[in-house]
Amino acid sequence: MITEKEKMIAGEYYLAGDPVLVKDRRRAKNLLHRLNVTEYRMTKKAKEIIKELIPNAGANLYIEPPFHCDYGYNISCGKNVYFNVNCVVLDCAKVTIGSNVFFAPGVQLYTATHPLDAELRKTLENALTITIGNDCWIGGNSVICPGITIGNGCVIGTGSVVTKDIPDNSLAVGNPAKVIRKLNE
């Protein structure tokens, strides 16, 4: 029998109140409290907390507190990833981040989504993966919506809301974000 956690990660409808998921979120919140309140600066202990929270990270993951996520274990990233202050990653589904990716303050990545049907929405939710390629810069207060892929070498302008996939080496801005030109050509 498939668990609610397996359903969640697979993008199927699941019960967020499942005891295993509640326990996993509580664990993440406890680690985040230590990171965001107790340490609040990049110390040896903060690096240990980040490694425990996000075990699938490459070398040099740097997070400026405060930082928020649902689980942590659904986030994987390459080397040299930087999250500035007030970033939020709702990682109910996989969030895959390449190497050399920089998130400005207030960036939000949302894998979580909900059914459009009001009756289903009362009990169920689902999530869609987010993928961000290598060498990207995501501008401040940008929102990356569920199911989005951002290609390699992209820049997302400040305040953008990314609702559609962005091809490699593109500058995308606006709400909704639109590619305004190719980069490196």
Shape: globular
Mean pLDDT figure: 96
What structural class do you assign from the helix and strand content? alpha/beta
Oligomer: single chain
Strand content: 25-35%
If helices are DSSP runs of H or I spanning 4 or more residues, what is the number of helices?
A: 4
Radius of gyration in whole Å, from Cα?
16 Å
Task: Give the topology string: H per helix, E per strand.
Answer: HHHEEEEEEEEEEHEEEEEEEEE
Query: How many beta-strand elements?
Result: 19
Note the gap between the termini: 51 Å
Biggest beta-sheet profile: 7 strands, mixed
Please describe the topology of this protein.
Layout: H1 4-10, H2 19-39, H3 44-53, E1 56-57, E2 62-63, E3 67-69, E4 75-77, E5 81-83, E6 87-90, E7 95-97, E8 101-103, E9 108-110, E10 112-113, H4 118-121, E11 126-127, E12 130-132, E13 137-138, E14 143-144, E15 149-150, E16 155-156, E17 161-162, E18 170-173, E19 178-182
Helix pairs in contact: 2-3
At a glance:
It contains four helices and 19 strands.
Describe the structure using short key phrases.
single chain; 185 residues; alpha/beta; 4 helices; 28% strand
